[in-house]
Design a protein that fits this description.
Elements lengths: L1 H25 L8 H20 L9 H21 L9 H26 L8 H20 L10 H21 L1
Helix pairs in contact: 1-3, 1-4, 1-6, 2-3, 2-5, 3-4, 3-6, 4-6, 5-6
């Protein structure tokens, strides 16, 4: 489990570094995005990954890894939006956004560690394509919950689904980096 923790942190460091650079370029323009818009951005990334996995020809020179980074970052943005709400104008400094990013990543890592303990690192035997399919399934669930105005009868909420997508994406990146 120690290797998993270090590998997890390395992926998050890569993702957070890109997030900070984009904050420098664009500011917190993402703060105006409503949750369905973030969900749709994640969906586009997951669909592209699935296409890369299925298609023999790739016409854009970006691989799966950059798309998984996008999923992770958009999911963390969504978790921040769930807590802070949507705004009409960018309102967050790079420092504040980075602190919130770090907080959401730490909470999500703790969830991973708890589940990883109970499941015995079963994800290590999974294929990247299966992790992609699970992300797409979670996205369809989130879209349904959004259509239901956030209400669920017996299911976990939107936040848990975003956290699972982060963890599945990190697992996929660990697999891709081990090959």
């Amino acid at each position: 489990m120690q290797d998993t923790s270090k590998q997890y942190d390395a992926v998050i460091d890569t993702c957070k570094s890109l997030f900070i650079k984009k904050m420098s370029d664009y500011g917190s323009a993402w703060r105006i995005l409503r949750l369905p818009s973030l969900t749709d951005q994640i969906f586009i990334k997951a669909q592209r990954i699935r296409g890369l996995q299925q298609n023999e020809v790739q016409k854009v020179d970006e691989g799966q890894e950059s798309e998984f980074i996008g999923i992770i970052n958009y999911c963390i943005m969504a978790l921040i939006q769930l807590d802070r709400g949507v705004v009409e104008q960018p309102d967050m400094s790079t420092e504040e956004a980075t602190a919130l990013y770090t907080e959401k990543a730490a909470i999500t890592k703790q969830l991973m560690e708890n589940k990883n303990h109970d499941y015995g690192e079963a994800w290590r035997e999974m294929r990247v394509s299966s992790l992609t399919d699970l992300i797409l399934q979670k996205l369809l669930r989130v879209k349904q919950i959004e259509d239901n105005k956030g209400k669920t009868l017996v299911s976990e909420g939107i936040d848990a689904n975003y956290q699972d997508m982060i963890n599945y994406s990190i697992f996929a990146m660990i697999h891709l980096n081990e090959k």
